[in-house]
Amino acid sequence: MLNQIYYYYFNSHYEKCLEISEKYLDNIDALTYATLCSFKLSINDKTLYYAEQLFIKNPTSFNGLLLAKAYILNSKFQEALDLLQKFAAKNDALHDEINLELALLFQMIGKLEETEKIFQNLLKKDPYNLNLWKSYAEIYFKKDFNKALKAHEELCAFCIQTNEKIKQGLLVEKTHSNTSNFQDRLQNKTKENITIAKIEEFLNTQILPQKAYLLFKLFKIEQSLALFQSLQEFNQHSAQFWQNYAKVLEFSSNYQNAYHAYQKALSLHSHATYKFDLAYLLMRMGVEDNFEEGKKFYESRLFYAHNETFSAYHYNKTMQAFNKDGIEAFKNKEILVFCEQGYGDTIMYSRCLEKICQITSNVLFAPQSAMYEMFKSQIKILNQSKKSFKNLKVLKSLPKNFDYAMPICSLPFFMDIKLTELSQLKTPIKAHHRAQDKIKKIGIFWFTPNAIDSETTRNFELEFLLDALKDTPYELISFQMQGDYKLPDKIENRATKIKNWNDTLNNLSNIDCMITIDSAIAHLSLALEIPTIVLLKPRFDWRWGKFEQPKSFFWPKAKILVVKDEKNAKAELNKLIKTI
What we know:
The chain has helices spanning 2-10, 14-21, 28-40, 44-57, 61-73, 77-88, 95-108, 112-125, 130-137, 145-167, 182-186, 196-217, 221-230, 239-251, 255-268, 272-284, 288-298, 300-303, 312-325, 343-349, 353-359, 369-382, 411-414, 462-469, 501-507, 520-527, 566-579, and strands spanning 175-177, 191-193, 334-338, 362-366, 392-394, 404-407, 441-445, 475-478, 492-493, 513-517, 532-536, 559-562. The protein is of the alpha/beta class. It has a six-stranded parallel beta sheet with strand order 9-8-7-10-11-12, with helices on both faces. The chain has a four-stranded parallel beta sheet with strand order 5-4-3-6. The protein has a two-stranded antiparallel sheet with strand order 1-2. The chain is globular, with a radius of gyration of 29 Å. Keywords: TPR repeat. InterPro entries: TPR-like_helical_dom_sf (IPR011990), TPR_rpt (IPR019734).
């Protein structure tokens, strides 16, 4: 029996090995392999059950590691932490392996300083383990770019010193583990000799490309570009390298070479992320042909993320009809338009509803629940006069019967809306007629939590706005819904009156000017034809056009202020407000 289990396990026939092992769970060896096979097959609930039984029968450090990993797979992080800390204190033969798993768990739950300390101790014991170094350098990669860059520079310096030692004959054939992967460590994978060639390949293909990207994230653009350029020959077959290089080229306004870099990434790996990053570039450029190509690539977001659509079946049916007959497929049909992205996108793309209303017999529009009341009341008001949306029905929930379904952000593609058409289409939101108050009212909005970990930086400090507006004779009104801040007494806080987007719309009725970051309220303010100043950081979203010449193709009346230097920006902001 055990021979069969051994045979199937070591030949990677894990399903068969598990099947036989489960027949003899009273045998501790069979139970061990049932645990390992469940682990290999990613059957998380079985892994946890068998690991618990194994640990009860034989509470060794090895079995404790298995159980801790099973806890992590099942999101039982506290149980894993308690167990790993218990065994780490024993300081037995698996002490380093236990500490490595503990470091990875700390990183997973966001305790990065604890992660860093453990990795530093492990590197003192095993200084030539390049994969350990790589994991150390990546601890802060997503959370603190400055710390991550410092760690990468530390690793680069270590590699240079190591190469010098090898050249001088001071270091010969030091070995390092090939992987930090727990499953592979259990099987004691082969070790490799550390050589100058191996170190240089490691730097040029794994570490320096990450350093170049970190320089980009820290706005050290010239350094980032130079490093990316020097690494091209070593990364000809890395799609990730070319995608990141494309982003830096795009930010440098080198759009043509950015396009080629994205195409290179796609030629290596046809991944959705590369496709819609390319779509962003093409739509950012504001040229009709580019926009048409960008619309097609933008649809890839739904092929790879079916959870973003309410039904992949209905979307695919729509795509098939469009591929066959084009826009003619939707004439005299009943179309469901659903919203798959943020509030801002819903407002921005809602102007495309006018085009679909012209083509189809009926449009069933299902906005996010928080926007239902706003769109319903606005459509009712608009149809009292112009009837532009007479065949549009706003729904509170998704219907069962319709001919085709499409996401609202796909309307430019399915309705063949050209770039020049966007600003000509009417929004289904009626512009406000503001009273001419003696003291002008300025609305302010400066923070969204959605921007914290995004590719583009959007948020500003409240102090920046208060300082810029401190000597102006206007009444300031805050629409800020989230964030940790304290408003001065002189600023009215209208966020307390807002429960949904219809409330936001009504509270904007007497605002003379809106100063806001790239956010949903910016789109609503612009739809209401309120003079709106959109504050942008230097690396901004494609929706606001080229970096060197920002312009919104959806909202041509938007006053865009790119803040590169806050002192100068305050003066520019004051000038813009006075002009308005």
